[in-house]
Amino acid sequence: MLVSVVITTKNEEKNIGDLLESLVIQEKPFEVVIVDSESRDGTQNIIKKYAEKHDEIKLYIKRGKRGECMNYAVKKAKGGFIVFLGADCIVDKSWLKEIKKMSQCDIMMGKIINVGSSRFKGLERMELYHKGYEITYPGCNTGYKKDVFENINGFDPWFVTAEDIDLNYRAVNAGYKIVHNKNVVIYHKIRNTFSGIFKQAFWNGYGRKQLTMKHGRFWEKYRPMDMIKKNMSFWYFCRLSIGLLGYFVCKFFCKRPEIENNS
């Protein structure tokens, strides 16, 4: 089964070259479908240079939110198994070889190793399980059978962030199974500036509220005290505070979608 690697970019000139360099040495055949949301830096030029040398790399330009761009990329993809990859990642040398072993799974989630500033690398995620599956696992190393993705209507373009959590939630509700493979390894460059971490935290909080607006009592199985006990560091509480700000900004200023997408 052909594997299509989907990447969305916007102003990623500092990262995209490292990612593509790690992809072009992977076991063939495969294709890389990149949708750039009108980058203003050198991102597109870097991609075009790689595309000139490697036929498997295809670049499309489309303005839109991440979910919209990924849906567009999947429509362009020819593979039966779609892998979503972050532009700020580097894949392990045997990454695609291991994915091909998993291409008959409904949904595959690989291993993510964070690299970057030691101040932020150890910050814990806020996990949520639904019907026995963790649905909050980061979507930057996740694979879906194309027909599974299409059956649940892909990403909901209403989401600013958390579109991957919403997708996983709906997939599990539809009866599809998530399989983890620790041998599918990527290295994720975490944000190493205060502004980058806080901006990410704000929009993560915003996305969490969008989830409750769409799905109702989405976090009813989650205990806030568990989150506090899990990590007592200064930076964790800073990120948590900014995330709560994003949550309440969405609560008061974001409109709920009129039609829910396969809740």
Q: How many separate domains?
A: 1
- CATH architecture term: Alpha-Beta Complex
β-strand number:
10
Helix segment count?
10
Rg, Cα atoms, Å: 18 Å
CATH topology: Spore Coat Polysaccharide Biosynthesis Protein SpsA, Chain A
Structural class computed from helices and strand pairing? alpha/beta
Folded structure, characterized:
The protein is α/β, with parallel strands linked by helices. The protein has a single domain, classed as Alpha-Beta Complex (Spore Coat Polysaccharide Biosynthesis Protein SpsA, Chain A), CATH 3.90.550. Helices cover 41% and strands 21% of the residues. The protein is built from ten helices and ten strands. The strands form two sheets. It has an eight-stranded mixed sheet, sandwiched between helices. It has a two-stranded antiparallel sheet with strand order 7-8.
Outline of the structure:
With 263 residues, the chain is α/β, with parallel strands linked by helices. The chain has helices spanning 16-23, 43-53, 66-76, 95-101, 118-121, 146-151, 163-173, 194-215, 224-230, 234-253, and strands spanning 3-9, 31-36, 57-61, 81-85, 89-91, 107-115, 129-130, 133-134, 141-145, 178-189. The protein has a single domain (3-192), classed as Spore Coat Polysaccharide Biosynthesis Protein SpsA, Chain A.
